[in-house]
Amino acid sequence: MRTSGEGEEAMNVPIGPAAFVFKHKRTGQIVVVSNERWHELYDKKEDWEHTATVNACLAIQYLINVKPRERNRYIRTLTEYP
Length: 82
Prior knowledge:
Elements: E1 18-24, E2 30-33, H1 38-42, E3 48-55, H2 56-65, H3 68-79
């Protein structure tokens, strides 16, 4: 993802809201939860692995604007174990 300062005009995107990505250790199910719910899954470490935290607005904007190959690569980075 591009950040300001790389020769392009800065985007006027709000900071946050955060989105927390978790992967179920046995089933592989991926869930994305808000700031209000992340601790519910984080506290269940035996079942859920926290894989990423992203700015939801920037992540959606990025996914909309990139080519399919880059989109798939970005999604893989969010869902793999850290």
